[in-house]
Description:
alpha/beta; two-stranded antiparallel sheet; seven-stranded parallel sheet; single chain; 9 helices
Amino acid sequence: RWENEREVFVESIRCEKDVLPTTAKVVIDHLSGDIEGNAYIFVNSLEFIKELIKACKLDDTNCRVIYSKNNKTVLPVKRGSTIDQPKKINLITSTAFEGADIYDTEGKTYVVSDNRKVHTLTDISTSFQQCAGRCRNSKYWNKLTHIFGTTRYSNNVSYNEFKQACENTKAEAFATINECNKLSENVRKVVDVACETYVVKSDNIFTFDANLLKIDLYNFKITKCLYAIRINVDTEMMNNGFIVNTVVSDIAFVDKIEKEKQKTFQEVVEEIHNM
Length: 275
């Protein structure tokens, strides 16, 4: 408990579809000036950042990416640091979630939890609060936007029920392995299996991977509490001192975002009616 505590207002955006289109819309609106200030997007996934850079056609003139110097990944935008000149769009991984001071009076904070990548699901009790305080001198210090989506673990089942379903999948995995390995090598080359089946293919031989089952159970525990439904996310935030307002986003198509900005009002009305 600190003296002179400052309350942070969170706009919680639950994406009905993928979180990338909603995040891309935020980026484009910052670049166009429809949203004022500079965007600071905290997301612990270089794969997501790479997709976002491509979708929004970002470059070194308008974007800064801050990620670990130990990571050898090369992105279309060069690696930056917290002391570089602020850009209109600033993309930040967990390397700067804590213990890093960023100075930008125009900085607006966004936290993205990509439902496709469990390692991006920020812990609201610790890292989330750290992200909220990275821009030290921002005039928007008391506002934060959280963009998140539901996950495949969001079904209304208990852990024991999910564990039993995993055991059933395990039994099915051995049947799949037996059938696939009987196929000719040419056929096995073109057969792919999803990781949710716990079956992996190596040198065109199918085997059971117990680690995939363990990861599935682990991911269920992480995501079930906070990211299953909107009310759980909101409640957890309020329990940790945030004021929350929730909206729902169903933006679906990244490749249409720029084109849609050029349509007339009549064209937009007609498209909505047809949808």
